[in-house]
Structure formats: C-alpha cells, structure tokens
Amino acid sequence: MTVTLELGLIYAIMALGVYLTFRILNFPDLTVDQSFTTGAATAAILIVNYDLDPVLALGAAFLAGALAGVVTGLLHAKGGINPLLAGILTMLALYSINLRIMGNRANVPLLGNDTLYTWFSGTGITGWTLILVLAIIVLVVKLVLDWFLGTDMGLGLQATGDNEEMVRSLGVSTDTMKIVGLAVSNGLVGMAGAFIAQKQGSADISMGIGLILVGLASVILGQALFNNRFVHGFANTAVGKFFFGTRNREVLIATTAVIIGSIIYRAAVQGALAVGFNPNDMRLISAIIVVIALLIPKWRIRKRPKTTGATTADPAFKEATNVKA
C-alpha cells in the first residue's frame, strides 16, 4: 500500500508534465521517454562525481529536462518540423547524450552516496510519514504549476493549445508559448526521473523507455474519473471553492485529477501483479488501462437516455473524442 502511494506520488510529478503538453498545449511530445532518463542521469552523476546536495540535484535535473524540451520546441517552432517527429528526433538524440552524461555506462549506482532517501531514512521519515512528506512535495509542485497556468504566460499557453491561429492574430508569439510549455513539461519529467533514481539507488539508461504511456495513462485515467457532474458540482460548493477556487478552476481540477490518476494507475498495476501477471507484461497492462480510461466516457454516454439531447455537448463525450493519444 505505502509502496503504491509512494510511486504514485513521485510519478505524479512526471504526469503533471505530460498533462502540460498533452492537454494544455495539445502537443504529442515523445521527448518524455528520454528526458526522464536525462534528469535521472544528471542527478546521479552530479551526486556521484561532484557530491552535490540531493535537493540541488533535483534542480539540476529539472534544468536538464527543460533544456531537452527547449530543443524539441525549437525543432518544431523554428524548424517547422512536425510535433511528433520533433519529439522522436530529440528522444533519439537524448539516448546517446544520456550515455555521455553517465560516462558511457548504462547504469550509475548511487550506493554509498547521500540521497534524499538516505536522508529520509536517517531522520526516521519512513512508512506513512514518508507518504505525507511526498504528498506535501507533490502538492507544492501542483500549486506552483496551478499558479503558473494562471499567469499571463500560462493563460497564453492554454489559449495556444485551444486556438493557435486566434492567439497569433492577437500578436502573441505561439512559438514562444510552445517552447516555454515544453521546457516546463520536460523539466518536471526530468525532476521526477531524478527522484526515482534516488529512490531506487541508481540511474539506468532504459528507465524512461515507454514512460510516455504511463504519463498518458495517469492523465487520461484521472480526467476520465474526475470529468463528471459530481466533481464539478462539488467545486461549486463552499468546500469546493476552498479547494479549487473560482478562477482557473478547470485547471485546478485537472491537475488534481492527474495526481489521483497517477496513484490509481499504480494501484491498478500493483493489483495486476498481485493477481499473477508477469512483470514483463507491464506495458500491456499500461495499454489496457489507457484503453479502459478512454472508453469510460463513451460508456457513460451510452447509458444516458437519448431523449436528453445533450450527448454531443457533454464534457465527457468531448474528453473521449478529443483524445489524440
């Protein structure tokens, strides 16, 4: 139980990054598969070779991931390369760069070096106390992202994802919006990679492969479960306004849903392994979870009476039909 919550919370940081590109910018960014490893490799090598503070290593991992996002953004915005292809090109290049960062080794162990987890263990932060600390960290990351998306630049990012031509006609540089969005997204992904490397005690060249599917599963699963009238009704109550506020509420609900989705995804994976699935089937399990999450809104629509006439206007229907996974 605690392991599921722990992993769910750490990977929620990565899922928030995926949410930023996938939902806000409407950009299919495959850079994530390697920017996660870039963050892990950067943090690991700085801790091992330069005895850097583990917290500062997280910051360095964010910057390394953000740089990878900037490259993808430049390839697309300034080079005119298709978003999908730009992400793939950066991902391919990062594989070799990550090996360079790790000193041409496929694995950098952190045994014998100070990490966040050795500090947690040394100060008695374990079990449910550790879960509480991680929850606070993720909450801080979420609140910062919520604040960012509420600034002028954040609103520009949202508008760019909704209607790029309209935003450009207003004099806003959509290229800058995309580059900034990709930088922040991959920065969060890189920081999550550094967190995981410190937890498992090593950085590995293959640790990010297929991770985009995990991020998408968390985002889609969380939003599929949260995108209903009960949640939005709760948001209109006094308690709901306290949690979600009255401005930029859709984003606040969405980022909360992403975090919950990450935990649910981990719980689903752990459940599948507990009933006897082979660990080699993890990717298959992830794909099945994504498919189920995509089908949930459609099932919900089909159960409603056709006489309501609200089928095409329902947010859940839009959620299912607009997905471009």
From TrEMBL:
Describe its membrane topology.
Multi-pass membrane protein
Transmembrane ranges? 7-25, 55-77, 84-103, 123-145, 179-197, 209-230, 251-268, 280-296
Q: Per the record's keyword annotation, is Transmembrane helix included, yes or no?
A: yes
Q: Where in the cell is it found?
A: Cell membrane
**Family matches, as Pfam families:** BPD_transp_2
Q: Which UniProt keywords apply?
A: Cell membrane, Membrane, Transmembrane, Transmembrane helix
Which InterPro entries does the entry link to?
Answer: ABC_transp_permease
Show the CDD domains listed in the entry: TM_PBP1_branched-chain-AA_like (cd06574)
Please give the chief subcellular localization of this protein. Answer: membrane
Listed name of the protein: ABC transport system permease protein
